[in-house]
């Protein structure tokens, strides 16, 4: 089920009422209801993959118990390896099998063999990369002694499948989310209200920014880059930067806001990343739940991060793996490597990500970081490394500087809405989302909510499905 | 309830949210009641005239259902003369889906009617569709709500409201001023029988700009058969006849194995399929803007072939001394 759909418009109030009024008296019943609602939400997309979700979750539940119950370190490690094999194996089969087979095929061809390797025609289950990572963090944390294995399978299954964040995150840590399913939830009026505000802002970013940027981006990336003016190619990447931001951070806002209606707190996934003053700061603000996952479960265990060389090596490995997580394509690996390379100067001069709030005098650093991020997005959006290279080459070669064309691009309506989002988020950059800063008089606030809703309605494209980009990962 | 605050809090929040939703709903209702049509392109408005004709024709009549291939590529007047029966061509757009097309006609069939199903390939591979075209159809012909499942209706009504609100904004902001609809795709482009004629006589389109046919898997979806059975039952209840014909298609888009699969499967399920393998294929130059949309010469050739196939098959009695084999 998609958030911007009629089905969700009906689903959410029904689940909300049943959650608090029908099942609210018993924690077990409430968790069971969350589980059923989450499976309905997921099955709406394709019920055939419910079995996979269930098998993956229940497997990790049992393995978590096994790790905790194991007598020696060797046994504990054995169960953990089994969990890794189960989760990464699922990802490997559904997401990476054909990629590796193609790679093997090309390799064998280059050494003169004529391979006939099998390929699988499998649909990629939506959200598989998200829920397997979430589930995996549970067994790893138990192995590390940071978490006790739960004895409540319903609570665990609800934790893995909790519908607001099931298909595109935030990737919640068991240490944060699972305990919330083990204690009675309370309805917090203020949190719930703010949740609705955050949802409204998420819908705005998705439907007004992401979905209106998408046709521009698609048109430019599908065209012949060799004959396209450099300024157009630049704006193709620029609009993609806002498309993916609106799409993914919009989804996260809707998910976090929605969870708050049910008394559940999810972690912040985006902290105004385009206001970052360095790449390291960008990665503290962009897709935070994934960045911290890779930091804790890949970067740190690699060790050696106290030396410059060790940090350099680990950063490059982590970003390459992170790129690969996004999809079985060299473009995502290229994107990861480019971001890893961006880190090099910072590591060499021992730069630290700033944690203070950006101010106007940081604008040069903010703009230069943003431009680096925009260039890297070209790899993410292109169909192959070769086309990404050509895109960047012709962006520079084909009249990149053109004041007239720049003016035309800047006067587009989409640019106006992007500016609106940037200004509002700048004002709200100390908080969680842009609508936190609305003026106090209630009628004025409600008028703003209404106006935002009308703008959303005026921008909804009834001809396209409003799928989120990150569903494919 | 496990709540730290008053048990009425969730309810109050819900009431507030519903109140807000009601304000938005009121705006949409206003747009629905007083707003302009959802699109300047009134092509789907032809559904209303087609239905008026369908209801008014005496039986036995000929009812053609299908997508735009049959709207562009049929001369119903000539067909009617050859069969000595009135004809209504209900075809308009493949994206409405076979299910919608069946729902449109099944209540209006009467004694001895002949139904010709001229579906595009997507009509077999994806017979149930749910898209904005249904919204545009309901916008012009509200009775079309009756042709979709009741679960879809609220969404369609909401969709019409949203699109009319967008249209009102486009009118107010002048965005529609310079946007002139394509000359072919308009409700007045259809003749009295329901054939699209606005493209006849127009110069040929640049071959590179002509849309090629896309094929989808599976060639025939499993749900196709229950819909076909529903149509067959309605036809049979009125002692009528149901025949399938394959869509006219340009040579460069033609995939014989796909047509063969459809033809064989239909025959295996006991349906009459007119024509022989490949007789629905015409040169690329016979097509207008897509490889399904016949131009004038191709349209006549296809109609003549259909008449010949119908008369030869004995499905219907052809006019004595009229066209036929």
The oligomeric state of the chains shown is heterodimer
State the total count of DSSP E strands of chain A.
Answer: 0
| Biggest beta sheet summary of chain B | 5 strands, parallel
- Distance N terminus to C terminus of chain A? 16 Å
Mean pLDDT of chain B: 91
H/I helix tally of chain A: 18
Range of strand content of chain B: 5-15%
Q: What is the 3D shape of chain B?
A: globular
Number of strands of chain B: 7
- Please report the first level of CATH classification, the CATH class of one domain in chain B: Alpha Beta
Number of helices of chain B: 11
User: How would the global form of chain A be characterised?
Assistant: globular
Structural class of chain B: alpha/beta
- Span of the ends, CA to CA of chain B: 80 Å
Largest sheet of chain A: none
In the sheet with the most strands of chain B, the strands line up as: 2-1-3-4-6
What name is given to the CATH topology of one domain in chain B? Rossmann fold
Round the Cα radius of gyration of chain A to an integer and report it: 23 Å
| Helix coverage percent of chain A | 55-70%
């Amino acid at each position: 089920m998609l958030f911007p759909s009629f089905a969700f418009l009906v689903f959410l109030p029904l689940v909300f009422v049943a959650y608090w009024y029908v099942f609210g008296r018993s924690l077990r019943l409430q968790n069971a209801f969350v589980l059923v609602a989450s499976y309905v939400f997921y099955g709406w997309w394709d019920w055939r993959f419910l079995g996979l979700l269930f098998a993956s979750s229940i497997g990790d539940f049992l393995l978590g118990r096994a790790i905790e119950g194991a007598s020696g370190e060797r046994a504990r490690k054995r169960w953990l390896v089994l969990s890794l094999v189960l989760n990464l194996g699922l990802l490997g089969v559904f997401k990476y099998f054909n990629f590796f087979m193609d790679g093997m095929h090309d390799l064998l061809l280059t050494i003169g063999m004529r391979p006939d390797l099998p390929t699988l025609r499998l649909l990629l289950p939506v959200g598989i990369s998200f829920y397997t990572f979430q589930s995996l963090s549970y067994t790893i944390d138990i192995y590390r002694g940071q978490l006790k294995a739960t004895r409540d399978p319903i609570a665990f299954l609800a934790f893995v499948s909790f519908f607001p964040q099931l298909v595109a995150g935030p990737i919640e840590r068991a240490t944060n989310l699972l305990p919330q399913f083990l204690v009675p939830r309370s309805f917090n009026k203020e949190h719930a209200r703010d949740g609705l505000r955050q949802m409204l802002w998420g819908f705005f970013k998705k439907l007004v920014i992401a979905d209106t940027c998408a046709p521009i981006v698609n048109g430019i990336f599908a065209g012949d880059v060799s004959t396209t003016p450099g300024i157009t190619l630049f704006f193709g990447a620029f609009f993609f930067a806002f498309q993916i931001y609106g799409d993914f951070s919009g989804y996260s806002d809707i998910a976090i806001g929605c969870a708050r209606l049910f008394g559940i707190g999810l972690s912040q996934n985006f902290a105004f990343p385009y206001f970052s003053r360095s790449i390291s700061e960008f990665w503290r603000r962009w897709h935070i739940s994934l960045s911290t996952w890779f930091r804790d479960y890949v970067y740190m265990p690699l060790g050696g991060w106290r030396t410059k060389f060790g940090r350099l090596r680990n950063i490059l490995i982590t970003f390459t793996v992170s790129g690969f997580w996004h999809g079985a394509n060299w473009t995502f690996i290229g994107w990861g490597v480019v971001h890893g390379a961006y880190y090099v100067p910072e590591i060499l001069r021992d730069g630290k990500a700033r944690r203070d709030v950006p101010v106007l005098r940081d604008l040069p650093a903010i703009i230069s970081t943003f431009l680096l991020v925009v260039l890297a997005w070209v790899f993410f959006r292109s169909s192959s490394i070769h086309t990404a290279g050509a895109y960047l080459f012709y962006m520079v070669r084909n009249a990149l500087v053109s004041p007239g064309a720049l003016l035309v691009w800047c006067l587009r309506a989409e640019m106006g809405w992007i500016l609106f989002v940037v200004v509002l988020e700048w004002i709200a950059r100390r908080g969680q989302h842009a609508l936190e800063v609305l003026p106090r008089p209630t009628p004025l606030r409600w008028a703003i909510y209404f106006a935002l809703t009308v703008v959303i309605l005026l921008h909804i494209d009834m001809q396209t499905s409003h799928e989120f980009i990150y569903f494919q990962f | 309830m496990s709540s730290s605050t008053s048990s009425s809090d969730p309810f109050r929040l819900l009431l507030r949210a519903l109140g807000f939703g009601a304000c938005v709903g009121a705006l949409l209702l206003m747009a629905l009641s007083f707003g302009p049509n959802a699109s300047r392109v009134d092509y789907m408005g032809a559904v209303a005239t087609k239905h008026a004709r369908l209801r008014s024709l005496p039986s036995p009549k000929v009812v053609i259902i299908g997508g735009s291939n049959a709207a562009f590529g049929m001369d119903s007047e000539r067909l009617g003369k050859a069969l000595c029966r009135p004809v209504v061509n209900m075809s308009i757009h493949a994206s409405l889906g076979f299910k919608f097309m069946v729902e449109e006609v099944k209540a209006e069939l009467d004694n001895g009617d002949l139904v010709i199903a001229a579906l595009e390939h997507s009509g077999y591979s994806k017979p149930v569709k749910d898209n904005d075209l249904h919204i545009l159809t309901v916008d012009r012909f509200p009775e079309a709500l009756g042709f979709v499942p009741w679960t879809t209706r609220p969404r369609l009504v909401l969709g019409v409201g949203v699109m009319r609100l967008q249209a009102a904004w486009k009118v107010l902001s002048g965005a529609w001023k310079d946007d002139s609809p394509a000359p072919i795709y308009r409700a007045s482009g259809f003749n009295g029988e329901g054939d699209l004629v606005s493209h006849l006589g127009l110069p040929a389109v640049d071959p590179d700009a002509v849309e090629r046919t896309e094929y989808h898997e599976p060639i025939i979806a499993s749900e196709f058969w229950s819909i076909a059975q529903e149509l067959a039952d309605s036809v049979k209840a009125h002692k009528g006849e149901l025949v399938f014909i394959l869509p006219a298609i340009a040579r460069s888009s033609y995939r014989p194995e796909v047509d063969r699969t459809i033809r064989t499967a239909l025959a295996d399920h006991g349906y009459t399929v007119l024509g022989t393998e490949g007789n629905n294929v015409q040169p690329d130059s016979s097509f207008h803007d897509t490889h399904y949309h016949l131009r004038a010469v191709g349209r006549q050739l296809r109609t003549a072939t259909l008449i010949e196939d119908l008369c030869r098959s004995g499905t219907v009695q052809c006019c004595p001394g009229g066209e036929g084999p």
